[in-house]
Each structure stands twice: as C-alpha cells, then as structure tokens.
Amino acid sequence: MRIAFHINFSGQCEEAFEFYQAILGGETKFLSYENSPAKESTPLAWRKKIVHGSFTLNDMEIAGADVLPGQYYEPKGFQLLLQLTSEAESQCIVSAFSEGGCITMALQKTFWSPCYDIVVDRFGIPWEINCAEAQTCYSVLQFLP
Fold this sequence. Notes:
Blueprint: E1 5-9, H1 13-24, E2 27-32, E3 50-57, E4 60-66, E5 80-84, H2 87-98, E6 102-108, E7 115-120, E8 126-131
Parallel strand pairs: 1-4, 5-8
Antiparallel strand pairs: 2-3, 3-4, 6-7, 7-8
C-alpha cells in the first residue's frame, strides 16, 4: 500500500504538471476527457482537458485532473512539502514557483530547518520548501539591511 496525492485544477492540469516537470524533473502522463469513456458526457469545450494526469518524481506520485466547470474549489488545508538539501536549490525553486504566484512565508531559518519557505504557485497549489542540510542553508534574512 502507498499514499499518493490528487489535486484538482480548473483547466490547467497539463500546464501545471509540465511546469513541475520542467522545474523538478520527473515524468508526466495525461489522459484527456476526449480519450476516455467520459467523452460524451463532457462539455465539448472541456474535452481536451485532463481527466487523469500524473506527475511522478522518484517514487512519489501526484495525480491530478481538470474538474468540470462549476465543480472546482481552491485547495485548502494542505501544502505539498519539498525536502531539499541546499540553499541554492531552495532559492531556485522558490523563485520559479513564486512567478505568477505568491510567497506566503519568505525563505528563513526556523527551529526545524535552516531555510524554509511557503509559496503558492500560479496554479493555486501551496508548497512548503524545506532545506534539511544545515551546513549549506542560511536565512536570507541575515543578508537584509
């Protein structure tokens, strides 16, 4: 048995998973409504949207779909956690994920991590960026005037 995540999108599943693949690596797969048994019951304008997608990185999978119009709700009550090993990697990912999104907690030292950040990407998905290697991570706050 294993646990995976499933994220609903309002029409950007393919774009989001391709973005994650470009930034993080991994692999994506997609099945559109058009190529599924749901084709006939799906609005014509929505048939090229994703009924099931997957983004796989190492041994972890995030599944996703474009829910039908009127059925989408913004994600609440969770954050996807990326465990990284360097400040440089953390800064790079925060920078990419914050384009068109927003940083809700700036990269900083916490009692559990030498550098930690919370960012909501342009698709509305909340991410925690957590650096685990103390020797290479520093709080960006120490560089501010």
